[in-house]
Each structure stands twice: as C-alpha cells, then as structure tokens.
Amino acid sequence: MIITRIFNLLSKSLFTLTTEQSSTQKATKFSANYLEALFPAAKHLLDKLKPIPHREEISWVEPSFSQAPWAKNFLGIQEDGNWVTDPINGWLEDFVKDKAFKDLPVNTKIELPGREGTAVYRVHSRIEKEGLVAIALAPEQDGLSPFLIFRGTQPDVIAGHQGLESVQNDLDHGLGERGWNSCKEALENLMNDPTFRNPKQKIKVSGFSLGGAHAELFIAEHFRNVSQGVFHSSPGISSAITDRFAKNLQNTPLEEPLSLQFFQIMGDPVPHFGERHLGCQARDSLLQTELFHIEFPEQDRFEIRLHSTRIFPSFPTTYKVTQYKDPEKLDRLLNNQRRNSISFVGELFRKIIGRPLFWIVEQGVLLIRKIKSFFS
Asked: Within 10 Å of residue 198's Cβ, how many Cβ atoms?
C-alpha cells in the first residue's frame, strides 16, 4: 500500500527503539518511497512530529492465550499443540504473499502439502478488474474444498499488472470497494459455476494486504457458502459492511460453522488502516473469530518491512504468539475506529490525502510510461 510508505515515515518519529531486519525474516522488497521522491522535505517535516505512545495504549487488553514464551516454527508445524499445527498454514501464507503475485495461467497445477499426503489443485480461473485480482483454485481430488485467493497491492505500479489500479483501491475512502464492486458479478458467477464448486459445497477464502480486504468484502456477501477465511496483514473495510454482516447473522443465524482467522504482525501499520475488520461485533454460536498477534523480539515501532514478513518460513524463527478469542476483546481489536490513536490518525491521514496523493502518483506513473515508451 502506497499510504503505508507515508505512515512508515511518520512512525519513525513515534518510537525510540529501532532494530535491524533479522536474517531469519523474509520481506518483500518494495519500490522507491513515493513521498520522499515527490517531496524531498517531507521526511524532515514528519520527523518533527510529537511522538505518540504505543505500548501503553494497548496495555488495556489481557490476552486470553499466550504461547510460552517464544515459539519455534517450521512451515506451521511444531510440537506445541496450542498453536496451529496444520501445514496448510505455511503453504497458504506462501501463496498469498508470493505465488499470487506471479503469472499463474488457468489450469496451472498447484500442490498443497498435508499430513495425509499432497493435495493437487489447479487454477480454475482468474478474475481481474479495477485493482482486484482473484485466483480460483479447484481441487483435483474429491473431498477437498475449493480455494479463492485475493492478491494484495501490486508494488510495481509502473509495469506491474493491475498495479496502479490496486493502489487506487488502497487510497479510496471505501478501502477495496472499487475492485470489489467491479468484480461482484464475476465472483457471483464463479460461485454458481459447477466446475468450481458443487452447489452446496463451501469454499475457503484468503488474502494478503489489500487482498485480505477484498477477501473480507467477499465473505461479507457470500459467508453462507464459506467455511473459512484467513487474512494476512489485511487492512479493515467499511464499518457499514461489517455492521451489515453482523446484522445478517443476527437475523438469520449460521447453519454450519464459519471460521475467521486474522494474522497481524505487531509493528505492521497496514492492519490499522480501514475502519473495521469482519467479525467485529458479530455474534453467532457457529462463528469462530480468532486474532493472532505475532510479536518479534525487540520490535517496538511501526515498520513497513514487517508487512510481508513470513510467519511460517521454511527455516526456524522465533516470535511470541498471542491469540484473542473473547468477543468483547475482539470487538476492540478489530475496530480500528476505537483501537488506539495510531489507528485513528493513520486512517484519517489516509482519507484526507488519499485522493490527491493518488492523482500525483498517477500522473508520475503515466509520465514515466510515456518516457519509457518514447525511448523503447
């Protein structure tokens, strides 16, 4: 998200403790800092802003579960039974943070490791428009759930596929709604396609970053045909949509379980954008909402590099996991409008400068494209 580059500059003045990136952490390399490129004096001005407390503001919450005390993780598999032990977690995170950004033509075969062997999927179809990119994975074997994966923001806004459009989704007032509204009919047709899923079959949905917001928007509409939603470092969506989801559950309760899992890395600013996350103030006996806070040692400030850091890498890493399941605590943590002043200021900042910033970025990108085209 372009706005996170700005927020990252802002956060450098908010916290005193800084750490260098550990060699055991992997993060996607982002393109040049747009704000510094456009306004060389911006960093100097932002550095003079008054620091805002962080730890003190979230110390009100008592975690309902804390893994003792630091976890070692291998592709999502470890000895501690309290943690998520299914190897699908490592595969899914790798897909949403890496493979979803690559060119995966229709009918490409995808292997999914499991405790009982390898499951094989194929790329059923791709839906792409106005910054939303969705990849539908259909199982090759019986008894497996189809997957719908939403890609995050394309960091290469100049040459990347749907790059500039995805940035516009980040900066619109209704985060992610531009892409969602343009693809709503195509996604509806996908859910009615018997070659993707059987009429009564439930699917699993996941997304990273902007893709997580698109996944939340999709589930808010199709939740009765979804068994699980997994969101990695996703920003929130409109409170009007989360409220409507909660009201729908109240009026017509679920008939089968629905699991919503949010993975957020402490210090990653992106989950603080948007208004609320799906599941906030939603109540149903068959709805299981979980928030996993991942905290790395000595990490005490917001840094954009944390946004795409892997939780389930192929090599051991250490971090603290705090799981939240209590509905009242989740109502606070999933509500960016009440979370803390960082969330409030960050979202206000995004809404105020979002549209003018996008116009500047858009003009710059179009100019660069014209120059490259002239010399090619």
From this structure: 8
